[in-house]
Predict the 3D structure of the following.
Amino acid sequence: MTRSGRTVRGLDAEQRRAQRRADLLAAALTLFGRKGFAAVPIEEICQTAYVGTKSFYELFDSKEACYLALFEQLADDLLVRMRTALAEAGGGIEDLIETFARTLVADPMVPRVVFGQSAGVSPTVERRRRENRRWAAGFVEAVWRQHGVIEPDREIRTIAIATVGALFELITDWLFDGGEDVDELIGQMVAYHRIVRAGLESTVDGVISQR
């Protein structure tokens, strides 16, 4: 016995609950990635995870809540990986773009769920998606400043948000076309960033340089 009650297979009640949650999210990732959010009923998630429907509702209020938990888990993992990549970066910005792209597509289901479906799930998910985009814009600004692309005190948040939006849209478009050649995706993202960088480096305080 434990303070949480009896143990089953060496797990107490809290650990079993955490395991069921992890199993449900893993099943949701596979099913949402393959079929899309709208096409997957809660019962199928439960069957795939070998978890009862009652247990599902003890963990999530709805399928949307399950998707949001999965979305946040995947997005947070990507953010941690990119922070680590920035801290350890020995190369340039294009190396970071490649790291991001290859990390993202290591499991093909991840970009399908994070980028291919998140825009149409619900207003709550859309708010979370936009919060992530604002964080990503701040990350891009930090990278630009670290590599001397912009002056330390220059305000370019709107440009960073637009750049992130464009890069994310390239990912979505790549997924729509089948999402098979990651080198093609990296090439598109790098080419777009080069255009943005050239524009930033040709301006001073928002005024086009005459150089």
Q: What stands out?
A: The chain has a mean pLDDT of 83. The two ends are 76 Å apart (CA to CA).
